[in-house]
Automatic annotation (TrEMBL):
Domain of life: Eukaryota
An example Gene Ontology CC term for this record: extracellular region
Keyword Repeat annotated: no
Annotated catalysed reactions: an alpha-D-glucuronoside + H2O = D-glucuronate + an alcohol
PANTHER family according to UniProt: ALPHA-GLUCURONIDASE A (PTHR39207:SF1)
UniProt name for this protein: Alpha-glucuronidase
Family according to the record: Belongs to the glycosyl hydrolase 67 family.
Length: 835
């Protein structure tokens, strides 16, 4: 008996690699108690193995086995058997099992779920609706929820799509979870196991289509061989009710079609696209449609031929229409601008390009609009375009992949950010006009609409490169289904499904996640100034100067005295005038503009006082200290869960949170140094530029090391680091530590570039206390940097080191490849100090 118990508890923390995501069907503690109340058979009303109803039956069987250890058989008739789960479509149920008169009306993809004792009914309006119902029932069971229910659940919007930015060579633009699960070497991969597993995860949260290739589209996706490959992907998606869609290159007729034009009104071009579309439907009868990035960031489009964007979109809408296909046409259209023009403003571009076209798009076109008017920043105001398209269907574009938000190396739970836009009231015609009601079609009576999420999963077993980042994908699906859902309660469903029902696990991960976006905003870009990441390179670490003096229009207009974009009508770019009057009036006036967007809308002195009472510059300083401090607590909170989570996932997350704790300090110091340097205004709390617990590497005694002026300067403490004198010289940096004797955490800040794996060793009085290798190019999964900068800057901490006053600290750095074992500084941290 004792042995059995031991085995049982060991099973609870068995190693997990993340592949099953939230569909683990892990054993429920005390499951045996419920065995009697569970159905003892499954009736799935479709015997065809590729049907979602069949899959629903198998999932239910697998779930009951995993969660309760109960084996249940499946049949495909006999729907009135007692103690059974019946799953199927409403129509099939009426046909095989008699009346379903008592059921409420269901919408496409909706389902009815009723549990009475051990009789369960799961009926979908269509097959995938039935599958969604099965997943919902399993989600209840896996969370230990045995309530008796009887309700209909309908999605709020028909478009619940995923965009993958996968390239045909297998790389993924802005992907941080490994290579593509769909493509390699110019074609579709032969083994589509992962594609099927992905479809399963997506179906379980109600997502219904995947655009499998990058919006920066390679025209050769449409070769006959690739269409055949895409057909194979669609075949593995279909049993999960997931449809395949494609990104198109607008110039395909000239690139692969042999035509001399791609003019959308040219008959040969129309015929070419009609033919391609017919071929696609021949192989993929349930093909969902096209996604088009046109006239944007160098992509070709209709403007080349002086045709409108609507004419460009309708070119695809027409051939898709007879098949029921949809065109998702992206609103991300803008030009390079000149910063010396005070009125130039990229944020205005989408409305300028699209507003005059409202009503000119065919009915099966949906304009896909990023949540804010620039580009997935840490905070943006709602895109005003949502208020302008009343006779055109729209969808919101969200990024699950954390391109500008830490690239899965920082925990950032995104739904609270998305909610600032989904719940925003645009007050069109002075009436309630929540973005969530606009995209679902409700506000302007549109039948189409919904959400597109850029996900970019890869071959990593964690899918996104980080276990905790999967909460964003899960929540994306739940919000696409119903954008009124609450981010925290959705998060807690995900935690229970992913990590189990332990109260402390749920509370801890909830707290970390809910604090994570505010913390990230605090230690990156505040007050609506955008993320302040390096927009010209990897979009990862800090580089505020990269925002300005270029044509990208993500300007901060920061100078020695002032900062922010004046977007007012009276004195600025006029962007505020793109909002309906009530919203425009709020943002036009600095007194009614919320602090968190003040620098988005107004250009002010650093000494401008916010509603909070703080000056802008002091807010920057304080926010950066507080954000980085919060990030330290994520690690300690996670450590409180040791033993409650399997080692594999515990260690993986621990590694990332350690990284985040260090990198949040890099962010904090870089942004504070930058604006202190620019403004010359000191931090009232005397923290910025004042680091009593640091020993700068350049002030240590060096042998084989030389000083190095880091660029951007603010990404090194005291602007200077050290590097080995050659790529093969071992460097030594030595110093006497003059702190009072005691126990400290010893933190070393260094740079981990790609192009080499340097090795560092730390000695105290010639006793080695630690060593490490600069291999983040293998471990972090984000786009690395070849320079010493805010992307490569990082920290390692040795905890609880006993140090006597006068001890000698020595760091030995061995370079590798082009990485010269760079070091920035050492911090000797008494308990509770974050320096
Ligand atoms: O933010 C930018 C990204 C590009 C992306 C583009 C877009 C796919 O940096 O990588 O291209 O947005 O959304 O089209």
């Amino acid at each position: 008996m004792r042995r059995l118990l031991l085995l049982a508890s060991a099973a609870l923390v068995a190693a997990e690699n993340g592949l099953d995501g939230w569909l683990r069907y892990a054993p429920l503690p005390g499951a045996s108690r419920y065995l009697h109340d569970l159905p003892s058979s499954i009736v799935s009303l479709n015997a065809s193995e590729t049907s979602p109803v069949y899959v629903a039956g198998s999932e239910l069987q697998k779930g009951l086995q995993g969660i309760f250890g109960k084996q249940v058989s499946i049949s495909h008739q006999n729907c009135n058997a007692s103690s059974s789960i019946v799953v199927g479509t409403v129509d099939e149920y009426s046909k095989l099992c008699g009346s379903s008169a008592a059921l409420p009306e269901l919408e496409q993809d909706g389902f009815w779920l009723s549990t009475k004792g051990n009789s369960v009914q799961i009926l979908g309006r269509n097959e995938r609706g039935a599958l969604y119902g099965a997943f919902e029932y399993l989600s209840m069971l896996a969370q230990g929820n045995f309530s008796q229910v009887a309700y209909a659940n309908n999605p709020r919007a028909p478009i619940r799509w995923v965009n993958q930015w996968d390239n045909l060579d297998g790389s993924i633009e802005r992907g941080y979870g490994g290579a593509s699960i769909f493509f390699e070497n110019g074609g579709v991969v032969s083994n589509l196991t992962r594609a099927a597993q992905y479809a399963r995860l997506l179906a379980s949260i109600g997502l219904n289509a995947v655009v499998v290739n990058n919006v920066n589209a390679n025209a050769s996706i449409l070769t006959p061989q690739n269409i055949e490959g895409l057909g194979r992907i669609a075949d593995v998606f279909r049993p999960y009710g997931v449809q395949l869609a494609l990104s198109l290159n607008f110039a395909s007729p000239t690139i692969i079609g042999g035509l001399s034009t791609y003019d959308p009104l040219d008959p040969s071009v129309i015929a070419w696209w009609t033919n391609v579309t017919d071929q696609l439907y021949q192989r993929i009868p349930d093909f969902a449609g096209y996604l088009v990035k046109a006239d944007s960031e160098g992509q070709p489009g209709p403007l080349t031929y002086n045709r409108t964007l609507a004419q460009g979109a309708n070119l695809f809408a027409k051939p898709l229409q007879p098949y029921g296909g949809i065109v998702m046409f992206r609103a991300f259209v803008y030009n390079q601008l000149n910063e010396s023009d005070w009125k130039a403003d990229r944020a205005k571009a989408a409305v300028e390009f699209f507003q005059g076209l409202d009503g000119q798009f065919d009915d099966n076109v949906v304009v896909q609009i990023k949540y804010g008017p620039i580009d997935f920043q840490v905070r943006e105001p709602t895109s005003p375009l949502f208020a302008h398209l009343r006779n055109t269907s729209t969808a919101i574009e969200l990024e699950i992949t954390q391109e500008y938000l830490g690239q899965q190396c920082h925990l950032v739970y995104l739904p609270p950010l998305w909610k600032t836009v989904l719940d925003f009231d645009l007050r069109v015609d002075q009436k309630p006009s929540l973005v969530r009601d606009i995209i679902t079609g409700q506000r302007f009576n549109r039948t189409l609409g919904g959400s597109a999420g850029v996900v970019n999963v890869g071959t990593n077993t964690t899918w996104l490169g980080s276990h905790l980042a999967m909460s964003n994908l899960y929540a994306y699906g739940r919000l696409a289904w119903d954008p009124a859902n609450d981010p925290q309660s959705v998060l807690q469903d995900w935690i229970r499904l992913t990590f189990g029902l332990d109260r402390s696990v749920i509370d801890t991960i909830t707290q970390m996640s809910m604090e994570s976006w505010p913390a990230y905003e605090n230690y990156s870009g505040n007050l609506g100034i955008q993320t302040l990441t390096d927009i010209l390179y990897t979009h990862f670490g800090p580089n505020p100067a990269s925002q300005d003096n270029n044509g990208w229009g993500q300007w901060t207009r920061a100078d020695h005295t002032s900062i922010g974009m004046d977007r007012t009508v009276w004195n600025g770019t006029g962007y505020t005038g793109q909002y309906p009057p009530e919203v425009a009036a709020m943002y036009e006036n600095i007194d009614t503009t919320p602090d968190n967007l003040v620098l988005w809308f107004h250009h002010v002195n650093y000494t401008h006082r916010l509603h909070s009472g703080k000056t802008v510059i002091q807010h920057f300083y304080d926010a950066h200290y507080s954000g980085a401090e919060t990030a330290q607590t994520f690690l300690t909170m996670w450590e409180s869960l040791k033993g409650k989570i399997d080692d594999e996932r515990y260690n993986d997350v621990h590694f990332r949170l350690t990284y985040q704790a260090g990198h949040s300090i890099v962010w904090r110091d870089a942004i504070n140094n930058f604006y202190f340097n620019l403004s010359g205004i000191p931090d009232e709390a005397k923290r910025v530029g004042n680091h009593p617990w640091r020993v700068e590497a350049e002030s240590m005694t060096l042998s084989g090391y030389k000083t190095y002026a880091v660029n951007p300067f603010e990404t090194a403490s005291n602007t200077t680091a050290i590097v080995t004198t050659t790529n093969s010289t071992v460097g030594t940096a030595t110093t006497k530590l003059e702190y009072p004797s005691g126990t400290y955490d010893l933190a070393v800040n260094y740079y981990d570039m790609y192009g080499g794996k340097s090795h560092w060793q730390v000695y105290l009085n010639n006793r080695k206390i630690g060593e490490w290798v600069g291999n983040s190019e293998d471990t972090l999964g984000h786009t690395p940097s070849i320079y010493l900068d805010g992307h490569s800057a990082t920290r390692i901490t040795f905890r609880g080191v006993k140090i006597e006053k006068g001890d000698e600290l020595k760091i030995v750095g061995t370079p590798d490849g082009v990485e010269p074992a760079p070091l920035d500084y050492v911090s000797v941290l008494p308990e509770g100090v974050v320096d």
